Each structure stands twice: as C-alpha cells, then as structure tokens.
Amino acid sequence: MESLEAIFSFHEHVKSIGYIAVDFYDGSILYDFRNDVTKICDIDFYRNGLSFNEMGEQFWGSVRINGGLAK
C-alpha cells in the first residue's frame, strides 16, 4: 500500500504542475526491498497540458486484437 501511495502522490504532484503521464508502466517503478522504498524512474515521457493520441492505433509494445495476438 505504501508503494501505491508513493505512485499516487507522485502523479498528484505531476498533475499539480500541469503534466500528465503518457508512458507510465510497471517498468517505471523500482522497489528497494532491503529499505522498503519505492522509486519512480523513466519519467521522460510526460507532457505539459492536455494530450491527444497522435499515433493512431500504432502504439508501442505488443499488438493485441480481440484478446489474442495479432496475425
């Protein structure tokens, strides 16, 4: 729950200065098990202000159609 709170708090801060997350995913979270600390990294893809889909349907990552892999 503390990790989730750290993520929410970070995004509340980001929103308060006018930015939104464009590419935040599990790879953006590092957890230090020894010290019980959550770190957020790879935050270079946030945008200032509103964001619109400029890519169409060609997003990064795996392509999935109707719950299965695209052919």
TrEMBL record:
The superkingdom of the source organism is Bacteria
Q: What is the protein's given name? A: Uncharacterized protein
